[in-house]
Write a structure and sequence with these properties.
The chain has two helices and four strands, in the order ααββββ. It is an alpha+beta fold and 108 residues long. β3 and β4 form a beta hairpin. It is globular.
Length: 108
């Protein structure tokens, strides 16, 4: 019986060691494993820039790929009630265009 208990303890120790090894290797290789593609790495800086330009709430985010040039368009409902489209270049993280959306009854 003691021999059987020893083998269970050994198995548990071995499986525990494997678990620790798996967790450590996951942490070491996590940077490369879960890195966004280059075309999407500037999404967060783009959103920050868009909201700095027009403070409010992002209603919609849409990505575009035009001849391998990636852009993201944010539809922002500003705090003053005005809605905006803001276009950002995902290669640089800079705003490249904006357009005010006209509400009912507004004239251009």
């Amino acid at each position: 019986m003691s021999n059987h208990t020893f083998s269970i303890k050994s198995a548990l120790a071995y499986s525990g060691s494997l678990l620790i090894l798996a967790l450590v290797s996951q942490h070491v290789f996590a940077d490369n494993l879960y890195q966004l593609p280059l075309s999407k790495q500037k999404i967060e800086p783009c959103q920050r820039e868009a909201l700095l330009l027009h403070s409010g709430m992002v209603d919609q985010q849409r990505g575009f790929n035009q001849a391998k040039h990636f852009q993201v368009r944010y539809e922002i409902h500003a705090k003053d009630g005005v809605e905006w489209f803001v276009l950002c270049d995902l290669a640089t993280g800079k705003i490249i265009g904006e357009q005010k959306l006209l509400g009912d009854g507004e004239q251009p």
